[in-house]
Amino acid sequence: MFHRWRLSDLAITIRDVAKEAGVSVATVSRVINDSGYAHEDTRKVVLEAVNKLNYKPNEVARSLFKRKSKLIGLILPDITNPFFPALARGVEDYLQKEGYRVIFGNSDEQLEKEMDYVDTFKQNNVVGIIASINETDSEMLSELSIPLVLLDRTIEALPSVYADQEQGGRLAAEKVLERGSKEITIVRGPKNVKNVYQRFEASYEVLKEAGVKVNILDSNLSFNGAKERAIELFQKYPQTDGVLACNDIVGVAILNEAQRIGKRIPEDVQVIGFDDISISELVYPGLSTIHQPAYEMGAKAAEILIKKINQEKLLNIHYKLAVSFVERKSTRKIGK
Amino acid sequence: MFHRWRLSDLAITIRDVAKEAGVSVATVSRVINDSGYAHEDTRKVVLEAVNKLNYKPNEVARSLFKRKSKLIGLILPDITNPFFPALARGVEDYLQKEGYRVIFGNSDEQLEKEMDYVDTFKQNNVVGIIASINETDSEMLSELSIPLVLLDRTIEALPSVYADQEQGGRLAAEKVLERGSKEITIVRGPKNVKNVYQRFEASYEVLKEAGVKVNILDSNLSFNGAKERAIELFQKYPQTDGVLACNDIVGVAILNEAQRIGKRIPEDVQVIGFDDISISELVYPGLSTIHQPAYEMGAKAAEILIKKINQEKLLNIHYKLAVSFVERKSTRKIGK
């Protein structure tokens, strides 16, 4: 199972074997990879040459000729945000069933790292890439010669799987309104993370139309600073009775701070998060949130990628999945 | 930046260039990689051959000869457990400063996947591996021809970075005892995850010696089932007034369930987790826990790996980092 590398081994290529056996490279490839017809005598001669030269097929070298390595590259923005490991789980489970292995890259929402991983994956002969990337150069990506599917983010020209952020933002606003909040604070994510910003825009539109008081607070999407944002929120807007958080990490921090300063959840202030990461269910009170079907999104992206790898025709290239409201104890019951 | 592949390109190797230029492969390599002396005339002849044959150095192909690719493979047991992304963060930040890129594999605590990733990484010419792996065949791993450092887990014969689990288990037990609990439930992790089991054994020893009533509940380490374990705990041991959880995920679930059934934290029951993942600080009440220096462990493993890659002598091969008690609101104050 483990291949011992010696410098001499590295020098022997499939072409040496072909030369030794007196056949073409393609023939050697077919024999070694058992991937097509080869006469019994030919097979024998090739295998003798393989043994004589101590040729060790290297998966990478093999794939240079056969291009059938079973590696997929997955680029995530931030593995410390539980939403992305959840996406990755969906991708991995699906691909594993199909015999592929997944290697991950963590891009920290940086364009340079994103493109660097695309390059690294290509250089290491992955057969497809799934990327949850933020700023994108769609022209550069469209020119990629290996199949790529975007996940959680979308670009016109590329196959993408994502969730209905606009529906999510609308839902959150509608739910907090119908449950009686009158002064609502939206904690919005960074403007350059477009899909998250869409949530804010959709929520804001609903609330503006309803004529309620709306406060806006800016936040990032990670654990770093979530606590500070929560403290800031109640200092700036002590009268707020409803909070829409850009994601569950921020939502949990807000639940914490509200209780710490003595507010009752949900009587004094309701909180709705976004994502439905595992922790939302485990905190007390449970965090009401907008469920993103992370696992299904990951699996769908994997399914589409395999179709592209197999050069099947795709009916759609954009797959938008619905979100839903998950009611827990951080929101009031209807009519209260 | 992006390399367009054509089949003809794949057929041209460094050996063709050497042949065309009338020099050795090593000479071509030195010229192309600018990695050693080459006479100006030689350089000229080689570059002419490169252009004539349209030779495109492939990072992988180059590394087959030069073995200087800057890729590190990192194997984690479960990226959906926030502790491991935190370890990864430490690894990545350190390696990035040194010019390396990290690709991840997620092993799900399965030996087969662990070994599969080791193999995949080797085949794709990573120059070193950091692995947080569980069951291990130390002989197989010791035979690996590329540098490997274990993280969070340890084997005699291999360089490892890990935290003092025994100290952690002891601390947790001492703290809950000195804060007044009389009937303590230890929620222990799976026996086959040795480092986690050590926590249990150390806690148990302290509690047994103190003569208090001790209950034991088995649990896994993930979000899956944490809620159910918590429910089961209070059904089986309704009088328990102190809980030591195998990790923070389980600790948070227990905090939740305790409050749901009307227990006051920490007056009726104290809870101590393990790890100090970000969420421990964000829940209400904050979860007291044993801090594992995840980031520092990751950075240390990266530092050692680079030393091994550069074939520097290692003074130690085992690095055990201390843990510490983080006091939050889920435990009582001393004297109460």
UniProtKB/TrEMBL annotation, chains A, B:
SMART domains: HTH_LACI
Entry's transmembrane regions: none
Full protein name: LacI family transcriptional regulator
GO molecular function, a single term: transcription cis-regulatory region binding
Domain HTH lacI-type: 12-66
Gene3D superfamilies per the UniProt record, alphabetical: 3.40.50.2300, lambda repressor-like DNA-binding domains (1.10.260.40)
Keywords: DNA-binding, Repressor, Transcription, Transcription regulation
Domain of life, source organism: Bacteria
